[in-house]
Amino acid sequence: MGTTISFYRFFRAAAVLAFGLALHNGAQAQGAVYKCVDEQGRVEFTDQNRKGCKQLESFFSSAPAPVRASAPIPAVRASGSTGPAPTASPASFPRVDSAQQRARDDDRREILNDELRAEQKKLADLRKDFNGGEPERMGNERNYAKYQERVASMRDEIGRTERNIEALQREITNIR
Questions:
Q1: Any idea where the domains of the chain sit in the sequence?
Q2: pLDDT for 126
C-alpha cells in the first residue's frame, strides 16, 4: 500500500507541476530535482538533497524562453488578396518536372476514383439493405429494441459513407 500512496503523490505532484507550467508559459525550474528512495522502497521527488537521493537530469531549460514576435500584418497584393506573398523555394529543394507531376496526379486521381467507385457500391448496397428505413427483421431480433438499434447503426453507416463520397469527390476536384 505504501508504494501506491507514493505513486499517487508523485502523480499528483507531476500533475500540479504540469498545470503550473501550463499557466505560467515560460516558467523555468531554478533548482535541481532529486529522486529519493527510502528504506521501504517508496519513491519521492523533491528539491532537497537527502540520504538515498539522486539528482535527476534537468528537463527544464535554464536558457531564457524565446521572445515571441507579434504576427506580421498581412500584405495586400496587387491581386487584392491578403496574406503573405508566396516565397521562392530554396535552391536545394527537389524539383519535379511537369510530366512527372502530371503522371503522379493521374495515378492519384485513378486511386481516388477506385475508392469512390467502391464507396458508391457500398452505399448502394447499404441503401438496398436499409429498404427506406424498414429493413427486414432478422430471426434474432424478436426484441424490437434490437431491431431499432440495427436500423440506427445502418442509418449511421449510410451517413458515414455519404460523407466519404463527398470527401473523395472534393479530393478529386482539387487535383490539378
A1: 2-55, 98-174
A2: 92
